[in-house]
Specification:
Elements (H helix, E strand, L loop, with lengths): L2 H28 L15 H12 L7 H5 L4 H33 L6 H10 L9 H38 L7 H16 L8 H22 L18 H12 L5 H6 L13 H24 L16 H33 L8 H22 L3 H30 L8 H32 L1
């Protein structure tokens, strides 16, 4: 055998070896299972994940649903609640599924909400890869906006409850709700300085207990002695429907905690599918919100307020107890909701502050964030309007827009389904998002202008 033919044979052997290795690597990549590569120190059971997801979707927003029904009437409100629940569930589903798919490609056990969005753009069409860092900032600030906007609603919630209570005990000294917002400023700043989640656990337990008792008392009053339907609308003017949509989205969206819940499951395969943790939770949430909204509106009609607890009798001990408990519950929930945005903002800022002033920087950042939420609450002191505004801008962006965009980018080069149905479906959802955003903002701003005119 000549030297040349021997070299050719070696080249062929190397080529075959390379092809075999590439094929082996490809098969290994395709067989990568993220669930088997999750290093979770304290995994959560399926039942525990169900309760965590349920807790994130059930909160003070439930008490706002009767006011949301006021803007649609009984029939559109009841059907619309399930429509919003279906859309919200679908957006969570596509976000989680996309995260799992990109985990396989990146060979990662799990990814956070932000990291999922970033990796999708990094692995997406070449023209979009340079936007990955912009996406990281956009998603982080959208997450912070959801938390800060939601906590502004909490400020009004607490202030309205306090005003309702003190107006009963001191009728000759009635102050506007803005005064109570200002009074809350100092205690909110002090408690928000708590920087470790474990110290907030007792407050979380107390808040959950107070909310549970409040819901029970509210249901007792709501489901008793329901008057005839003559004082309610079966269908309200379509112009008012946007406030319902933005309120319902605010009430039901818990997408900011979905990825942590799914990532820490002992059996993440139980999260999606039918039945699955997500579907079961959202079926229960949608049904509960629809029932509370329906009967709350039937009970109080167009006089229902931003939180149905404000409609409870003022001269009964049980009702007064509910108002006090809900104020305590939302007060402590405020700090839990502020924990995530404070972490996000501090990660962005601490590199720009010298080590000597790190502690002072944290104190200042946390204080200014609380002041910002109080200023927003004072600027829009109507609970119902503020919920609609925050839901239209922040919750719809995080819960609708971002999952839709992420799925579209991920599927663009990997197949958009038969007849590109994923693209058309997502275009319809984008239109829905734009309607919620524009009409919700317009309705809220119009209501604000008419309030002060």
């Amino acid at each position: 055998m000549t030297e040349e033919s021997s070299e050719q044979k070696n080249n062929v052997f190397r080529m075959e070896s390379t092809v075999a290795l590439d094929s082996s690597s490809l098969d290994e990549k395709e067989e990568y299972n993220p669930f088997e590569n999750r290093n979770v120190t304290h995994p959560t059971s399926t039942l525990g994940s169900f309760f965590n997801l349920l807790k994130s979707s059930l909160g003070s927003g439930l008490l706002a649903m009767p006011a949301a029904f006021k803007h649609t009437g009984l029939i559109p409100g009841f059907l619309g609640t399930f429509l919003v629940a279906i859309i919200a569930t679908h957006c969570v589903h596509i976000l989680v599924q996309t995260s799992r798919d990109i985990c396989k490609e990146c060979r990662r056990g799990y990814l956070s909400y932000t990291d999922t969005c970033v990796e999708v753009f990094k692995q997406g069409p070449k023209k979009l890869r340079s936007y990955s860092e912009f996406v990281r900032h956009f998603v982080d600030y959208a997450m912070a906006g959801v938390c800060l906007g939601g906590t502004s609603v909490y400020v009004i919630f607490i202030a309205s409850s306090l005003k309702n209570i003190f107006d009963y005990f001191f009728p000759d000294q009635s102050y506007p709700v803005e005064v109570y917002c200002a009074i809350l400023l100092v205690p909110l700043i002090l408690f928000t300085q708590v920087r470790h989640l474990k110290f907030l656990v007792p407050f979380s337990i107390l808040a959950n207990f107070c909310l549970l008792v409040t819901f029970a008392i509210t249901c007792y009053y709501t489901f008793n002695n329901i008057p005839s339907l003559s004082h309610v609308n079966l269908a309200a003017n379509v112009v008012e429907w946007p406030l319902f949509l933005s309120t319902a989205i605010f009430a039901m969206e818990g997408i900011n905690v979905v990825m942590p819940v799914e990532n820490e499951m002992a059996n993440p395969g139980h999260f999606l599918g039918c039945p699955g943790v997500l579907n079961i939770t959202m079926c229960l949430v949608g049904s509960l919100y629809a029932v509370v909204g329906l009967f709350g509106y039937m009970k109080y009609g167009n006089d229902v307020l931003g939180s149905v607890t404000l409609n409870l009798p003022e001269n009964e001990v049980l009702a007064l107890t509910a108002k006090i408990l809900v104020a305590i519950a939302v007060f402590f929930t405020y700090f839990l909701q502020m924990y995530a945005p404070m972490d996000i903002l501090w990660m962005r800022l601490k590199g720009k502050i010298s080590q000597r002033f790190q502690n002072h920087g944290q104190i200042l950042m946390r204080s200014l964030s609380v002041i910002l939420t109080v200023i927003l609450a004072v600027a829009v002191p109507d609970l119902e309007i503020l919920i609609g505004l925050v839901g239209a801008i922040f919750f719809s962006t995080l819960g609708l827009l971002i999952p839709i965009i992420v799925q579209t980018v991920h599927k663009w080069n990997r197949g958009l389904g038969k007849y590109s149905y994923i693209l058309f479906k997502n275009m319809i959802l984008i239109v829905f998002y734009i309607i919620v955003l524009i009409s919700g903002c317009y309705s809220s701003i119009t209501a604000i202008i008419s309030r002060f005119s």
